[in-house]
């Protein structure tokens, strides 16, 4: 059992570090390049997920791992943890939804996208995301049971089911509908429409190439690597649909299903192991989002490569600068000394 606990702790720490490095790298790559401002929602997603990696995931490690079983949260600390949990999860999921809608307009309605997608609109959407997330998280501070003389709660019991005892069912339904069900429907509908458009465009290109090929030659077929069905078969759009929607459902469906089920059908006490598993499956989204929404994008990936090369050159440039500075300092020192003292100094330095 202790070995399994150690493996679990290692996985949680690894996810936390991956979330810190991945989100930081994508944010820096977008912020340092002026032409990357169109990825403002991706940058916002990385900022929210970075906050999760800094604030939420370390608290989750302390609350979940048996190695910290002696740690006890006070009632206030537990309230803060639950507030951050709801607030940051909601903000992250709503930002993913905004990215999906933005991609839909960029691909399906490019002219409308160029006209309406302004910085003010993007800022308005981000403000809406933060306000909605904060308002929903504030509900978790209502209806806490009276603990009497009990001043602390065991870390393993610091979960959503400790709060709002009279409002648990209402909150669970609101939380699941507003932060999961509605975003899931929007994301699935958006990428289905994107797939249909990509499939239609692929079919038109395929028919066009087939017509041109028939006119040019009737004796040779296209090489296998240039086959229209392989190049323009809409496979990339289908893979994108499966990957994006699948990753979202894998990370979040168990989490919301568990909490909705626990709040509606079972007593207050929840099975700790299952809750920890679904919680960290959900937290893994903070580590994989930079990959799906950042590193898979060619422009962001190129900026990250430039950033890495720039960081690799800096130590060499710093060493060269130190050598030049040292040489200049020696020259100035020798020039300020008398001739005989300068000769003695040069002999000592030699």
TrEMBL record:
Gene Ontology molecular function terms on file: G protein-coupled receptor activity
Principal location class: membrane
> Which residue windows are coiled coil?
none
Q: Name one GO cellular component term.
A: receptor complex
Q: Identify the InterPro entries for this entry.
A: GPCR_Rhodpsn, GPCR_Rhodpsn_7TM
Every copy of the G-protein coupled receptors family 1 profile domain together lies at: 22-293
Q: Which UniProt keywords are present, listed alphabetically?
A: Cell membrane, G-protein coupled receptor, Membrane, Receptor, Transducer, Transmembrane, Transmembrane helix
List all membrane-crossing ranges: 6-30, 39-61, 81-101, 121-144, 170-195, 237-257, 277-296
Give the superkingdom in one word: Eukaryota
Where does the protein end up? Cell membrane
Membrane topology of this protein: Multi-pass membrane protein
Q: Which family does it belong to?
A: Belongs to the G-protein coupled receptor 1 family.
For this entry, the protein name equals G protein-coupled receptor 61-like
Q: Which organism is it from?
A: Sinocyclocheilus grahami (Dianchi golden-line fish)
